Structure formats: structure tokens, C-alpha cells
Amino acid sequence: MNKIISLSVLLFISMVMIAQTALPTKDIELVKQKIAASSKNMNTMQSSFTQEKYMSVMSQKIQSKGMFYFKKQNQVRWEYTEPYKYIIVLSNGKIQIKDDKKVSEYDMNSNKAFKQINDMMIQLVQGNVLNNPAYTIKYLDAGTTYLLEMIPTDKKLKAMFSKIQLNFDKTSYEVASFKMIESNNDYTLVKFINRKQNAIVDASKFELK
């Protein structure tokens, strides 16, 4: 169970620039509106991704690669291809895990941790996490991206993360990366590469057999 939660949490990134300045108050509302508009117009997303997992108990970072798929309403697929093959699908209130040829299925609603993670991941991809009262948000200008530092105020989220860093592309206002930092400074960093918004994503991507 812990393995599944850990792998599910492996989701999304931050390219933290050396020069980061706080956005003027007058610009914050505009950025929020642009991100919301991009989110509203996104019906699907597919992208390759890289993932970096840092754990203080290990001498090296864990590097992974794969493909990410998203489709409204609330369908997500994480397909790891390197260094191992592993698939996580969140769809229709259930989580499916495929490890080699074995498929395991879990009821998302029966596990609050799963549901919290799923809801957060959907919000991250769509950008509407900015309206979540469970976080306070700092808006920073990080060069080619807007960096949003999200500090959890919810007790349960605080137990999982000290902060989440989101990077939004300044041209498309899509999420380009995110970094989830745990209370012990372990973190998961995900970067989306060659993002394609509103490309056709077959329904079969969200059902494992």
C-alpha cells in the first residue's frame, strides 16, 4: 500500500531559477486568470515526463521516464518506461496498477489518501489547485516560467508535504513541472516534455487489462 501511495505521489515538477522575484500584486490576478483559462480549455493532455526522486536514506537520486495522459473527466495515466515498466491509472473512482503482467485494482473512495492524491493531481494538471483553500500560495517570476510555491494549511496535507512548487509556462500557461517536498526534505520532481494539449487520447489508455 505504501509503495502504491509513494508511486502515485511521484507526480509533477519545478525548474527553480537562480533569480526569482515576487510578482507584483497587480500581476497575480492576471496570471491566475490566464492559468484558469488555459485549464478550462484543456480537455486532454499527453506528454513525456522525467521524474527525479530524492530520499535522504539513499545515496543516489532515483531517475525515471515515461508518458503521461490526462482526459476529462478526471482520467489520468502514468506510464513508466524507464528504468522499469509500471502503469498507474486513475479513472472512474478506482486506481489500477500494472506491474509486469499483473493488474491490481483499488477503490479510490475507500482510501482517503488515494483520493486526496488523485484530487490534487487532477487540480495540478488543470491548474485549478490555485483555488484550493488548503494552501497558501506565493507567486514568483522565475524567468521563462511563473513559479508558484504552495504551502499546505490542511493538517493532513502538512503531514505529507512541506510545500509544492509549480512552474507554469509563460506562453501557454500550462503546468511545465512540479516538485513535491516532504517534511523531511525528501522530494519528487516531475518535468513534462513535449506537452500536447487537446490531442486525441484513446479511451483504452484508462483501462488496464
Question: Summed up, what is this model?
Answer:
The chain is α+β, with helices and mostly antiparallel strands. It has helices spanning 2-8, 25-41, 112-126, 155-160, and strands spanning 21-22, 44-54, 62-71, 75-82, 86-91, 94-99, 102-107, 135-142, 145-152, 163-169, 175-181, 187-197.
Give your account of this protein's structure:
The protein is α+β, with helices and mostly antiparallel strands and 209 residues long. It has a single domain, classed as Lipoprotein localisation LolA/LolB/LppX (outer membrane lipoprotein receptor (LolB), chain A, Clam). Helix content is 22%, strand content 43%. The chain has helices spanning 2-8, 25-41, 112-126, 155-160, and strands spanning 21-22, 44-54, 62-71, 75-82, 86-91, 94-99, 102-107, 135-142, 145-152, 163-169, 175-181, 187-197. Strands 1-8-9-10-11-12-2-3-4-5-6-7 form a twelve-stranded antiparallel β-sheet. A hairpin with a 2-residue loop joins strand 8 (135-142) and strand 9 (145-152). The radius of gyration is 16 Å and the shape is globular. It starts with a helix and ends in a 12-residue tail after the last strand.
